[in-house]
Write a structure and sequence with these properties.
The protein is mostly helical. The protein has a single domain (3-158), classed as Four Helix Bundle (Hemerythrin (Met), subunit A), CATH 1.20.120.450. The chain has helices at 3-20, 26-30, 40-63, 74-81, 88-107, 111-114, 128-158; strands at 68-69, 117-120, 124-127. It is elongated and about 55 Å long. The structure holds nickel (II) ion. The site of nickel (II) ion has 3 residues, from helix 7. Residues 46, 138, 142 line the site of nickel (II) ion.
Length: 159
């Protein structure tokens, strides 16, 4: 994944979510998947939780010498966020703000900066680039998940 693709994704995912959820009812946004998995609101909240968590990793790896990067319990964070009970607009805005902070941080780095090391608690020795790629792919995957969930909830209404 190139730096352009990373920055392009992080700059636009939040606004793309904002566009595709227009016109959905609260009921549709809160509807869990057939497998009981997260609703569109909860997936969006998960992206915000990840931006908080990984944004901290990125700042530490830039500022510190080979820092230890702790994992977090994403399911617990999602429950705590209580995203189904919150309006989605401010969650998208906060996610957008954090992703743009990450873009600003990455834009200031030279080639050596992207290779700065850290140690992830679960995945072991890593580099800033590897974690950023992981974070960006994760964002793309959940965006695709939101798109397919939107198709699902629209079909449910039509049925
Ligand atoms: Ni995820």
């Amino acid at each position: 994944m190139t730096a352009e693709e990373i920055i392009g994704t992080l700059n636009t995912t939040a606004s793309r979510i904002k566009m595709i959820v227009v016109g959905l009812s609260d009921e549709q946004l809160q509807q869990r998947g057939a497998n009981g998995h997260w609703s569109i609101k909860e997936i969006t909240g998960h992206l915000l939780d990840d931006a908080v968590h990984y944004g901290e990793h990125f700042r530490r790896i830039v500022a510190d010498n080979n820092p230890l990067l702790p994992g977090y319990d994403q399911d617990a964070a999602n429950v705590e966020g209580d995203y189904n009970q919150r309006p989605i607009g401010p969650v998208i805005s906060e996610f957008d703000r954090l992703d743009k902070q990450i873009v600003a941080l990455l834009s200031g780095l030279d080639a050596a900066g992207w290779q700065r090391p850290g140690v992830h608690e679960e995945r072991g020795p890593t580099t800033l680039e590897a974690i950023v790629v992981h974070y960006t792919r994760h964002e793309q995957e959940h965006f695709a998940e939101i798109e397919s969930r939107i198709a699902e909830v629209k079909q449910a209404r039509a049925a």
